[in-house]
Each structure stands twice: as C-alpha cells, then as structure tokens.
Design a protein that fits this description.
The chain is an alpha/beta fold. The chain has 7 helices and 10 strands. Strands 2-1-5-6-9-10 form a 6-stranded parallel β-sheet, with helices on both faces. The longest helix has 22 residues. Pfam families: FSH1 (PF03959).
C-alpha cells in the first residue's frame, strides 16, 4: 500500500526481473556517492527498475563540491579527462577501460541475481556525457548494420552482445559528446576519448551522423555554471522531437525536492512506456513534463 498522500508503495519489491538502468557517476566522485545523491529518485524508480551503479576506471581527486559531505567516500573516480593534470591516455585504451568498468558492473549484477533487460542509461555530469555518447555509439553501429543489410549489430565498447539501450536520462550533461568508436566516427563535433573536453572548439554545425536520435531526458539546473553547455547538448547534439527537457531552480547537483523529483521520474516513466518498458507509476501523470520548474 502507498504512504498516505503518496503513490509510492511502502514495500520495496524484489527487483530481480525488473528492467535495468545503468547509472554512471560524474567526475571526481564514485558509484556510492552517486547512489547516495540520487536517494530521492531511487525512492520512486526502485518500484519499476533495477538500478545498477558503475564505478569509473580512473582515480582522481574529489570534486570540490562533494568534499564536505562525501570526503570520506574515497577513492574518487572519473571516466574521462577534463583537467590537464589527469594522466594522458590514448583513445583506444581509454575506451577499453571504460568498457571494462561498465561490463564488470553489469556482470557483477548478473551474479547478484539481476535478470532483467538492460533498457536505460542514467548519468550525472560527466556520466551524462558518457551515457549520451554510449547511445550515439550504439546508434552508429545499428545504422552500419542496416546499410550492410545485417540483422545483428557489431559488439560495442562494453563488450556485451545484444545490448539495446532504449533511452538516456541526462542529469546536467554537457556537450560535446565523446567519440567512443573512432572507426565509425570522424566528425570534429565529437571530442576524442583521449582529449580534454574543457576548452573544446565547437563546430558551427553538428553533422547529421553524430546527432543522437535515441530518446533522451535532459535535466537542467538554472543556476548551474555549465548550463550553456547543457543546452548545447540538448539543442545541437540531440534530435528534437526525441528529447524531454526539465528545468529546475538548482545548481550543479541532483534534484532531491519532491516536485522536481516527481517531474523527473514522471518523464522517465513516460519515455520508458513509449519504448515498450512496463513501469509502475509512483507519481500522477501530467500533461507535460517539459515546463520550467
């Protein structure tokens, strides 16, 4: 039964057979911190999805925004380089390390009993950039298979055959997207996995080949210093008509207040259902999830 005044059931269900969402943390934190920061989202989503939290492959200093609360949660990690002091690595090795870390988290969840289909990616900050980049890489492999008249796609950087991500939840995700398959992408609109994304020289027009057509939910804090880059990801790298935008009066963090959280999870449920994923609604349906908060 739900809590009075709420649609969230009091009993947390067994998630063994639930569809799974892979959750990718930002830079300078780790999976445990992302999970703790996402507690308000989890209260809702755990009734429809099995959430799996992956750790990035590279160690780094903690992000300055989390030291006071999560300073004891070391080691801190990243997926990509964004500071000059981050150790240089070639693109192929970086992509392989990212793929290995994600595959390990997914296989660990299999061993822990997870049996549901992998349906979505949810990332914050650098994890949102990576989520969108993974969706784009999958899209390119699918398009290549169609051109060649093949029913099966090539195996992507995660190294698990048959993956078909249906949607992405991009919490404070910045442009540009990362090139996770240099054999397929040559566009200058993408940043190499070996390079720093800070100071990236944007192209005038993002070419059609690297515009993401998969459904994406974009959550933008109006007080976030990186908002202009979040908007570039939303407007320039994602196909309009396949996007849902939620704006809220917050800085660079994950929403925890009920009204914003309800709009985010409502958008997730809506997009999931549109992509044939069954969910349990824990919020009231609204006419639109795309208004300013």
């Amino acid at each position: 039964m739900p809590i009075p005044g709420s649609k969230i059931p009091t009993h947390v269900p067994d998630s063994t057979h639930f569809p799974r969402i892979l959750c990718l943390h930002g830079g300078g934190v780790n999976a445990a911190i992302f999970k703790a920061q996402s507690r308000s989202l989890i209260r809702h989503l755990q009734h429809s999805f099995r959430l799996v939290w992956a750790d990035g492959p590279f160690f780094c200093d903690p992000h300055e925004d989390i030291i006071q609360v999560y300073g004891s949660y070391a080691p801190f990690r990243r997926w990509l380089r964004w500071l000059p002091e981050h150790t240089e690595i070639d693109a192929e090795s970086c992509i392989n390390e990212i793929g290995y870390s994600i595959r390990t988290a997914m296989e660990d969840d299999d061993r822990e009993g997870g049996k549901g289909e992998w349906v979505g990616l949810m990332g914050f900050s650098q994890g949102a950039k990576l989520s969108a980049s993974l969706l784009l890489e999958q899209q390119a492999r699918e398009e290549k298979a169609v051109r060649e008249g093949r029913a099966d796609w090539d195996i992507g950087p995660i190294g698990i055959p048959g993956l078909n991500w249906r949607f992405g939840v991009l919490l404070a995700g910045r442009a540009p997207l990362s090139n996770l398959n240099p054999s397929l992408f040559t566009s200058k609109a993408l940043v190499s996995a070996a390079d720093l994304s800070e100071g990236f020289q944007f192209v005038k027009d993002v070419d059609e080949a690297v515009i993401l057509k998969q459904p994406t939910i974009h959550v933008h804090g109006m007080a976030d210093a990186g908002l202009h880059l979040h908007r570039r990801l939303y407007k320039e790298y994602c196909e309009q008509g396949k996007t849902t935008l939620i704006e809220w009066e917050g800085a660079h963090r994950i929403p925890i207040k009920s009204d914003t959280v309800e709009r985010v999870v409502g958008a997730i449920y809506e997009v999931a259902e549109q992509n044939e994923v069954e969910v349990t609604w824990t919020v009231d349906r609204r006419p639109s999830w795309t208004f300013d908060g």
